[in-house]
Design brief:
Length: 209
């Protein structure tokens, strides 16, 4: 087709083909040449249209490829961000579980200590009650003895007995005051532990929610 581009119709008409021996060949008819030329031109236009269409398709595919590459790059970035967020959330979850476990252990330990203090307080109360009853009995006996001092003791021994009774009473009162102070101290410690346990329990409930 490129060889025919340099010829016009007149050249093709005036062209006289030669055979291999230098003899004249039969001239083709003008109509045949024109028909062949038209077919060649149509083929050329058809090829040019196909090339143009293929180029358009190629450009479209290239543009679509670039769009897909851009989307793939963006999706890869989003995927990395989500992976990082997932790792952070996993780390926070593990920390929360560890904190919750520590708080539960601390609560259990506090409850055990509170129970021990309750038992000690009950024992001290019982012991104090027994000592008080004993003191009241001794005091009652002492009063009864004092009522009969004139028949039991001589006037010379009465001051010593009164002094001994006073000492005994002072000792009993002092022992009672010591026990009361110990009981008061244990009550204060128990209240303090209750106050310390309350925020820990509240935090553990918040973690569970």
């Amino acid at each position: 087709m490129s060889e025919l581009a340099g010829f016009n119709i007149e050249d093709m008409i005036n062209f006289t083909p030669m055979n291999g021996g230098g003899g004249m060949l039969q001239e083709p008819k003008v109509e045949q040449l024109m028909g062949k030329l038209r077919r060649l031109q149509q083929g050329k236009r058809s090829l040019e249209e196909e090339i143009t269409e293929l180029k358009s398709v190629s450009d479209s595919l290239q543009s679509e490829l670039e769009t897909l590459q851009t989307e793939a790059y963006q999706l890869e970035g989003i995927h990395k961000e989500k992976e990082e967020l997932c790792r952070k959330l996993q780390f926070q979850c593990e920390e929360s579980e560890q904190d919750s476990s520590r708080q539960l252990k601390q609560n259990k330990k506090s409850e055990e200590q509170l129970e021990e203090y309750r038992c000690e307080i009950q024992e001290l109360k019982l012991k104090h009650r027994k000592q008080r009853m004993k003191f009241e009995n001794q005091l009652h006996q002492l009063i009864e003895q004092h009522k009969n001092l004139h028949s039991v003791f001589t006037p010379e021994r009465l001051p010593k007995e009164i002094e001994s009774a006073g000492n005994t009473k002072s000792q009993l009162l002092s022992a009672e005051q010591i026990k009361l102070a110990q009981l008061h101290r244990l009550d204060e410690e128990l209240e303090e532990m209750k106050k310390q346990k309350q925020p820990v329990t509240t935090a553990a409930e918040t973690q569970e929610e």
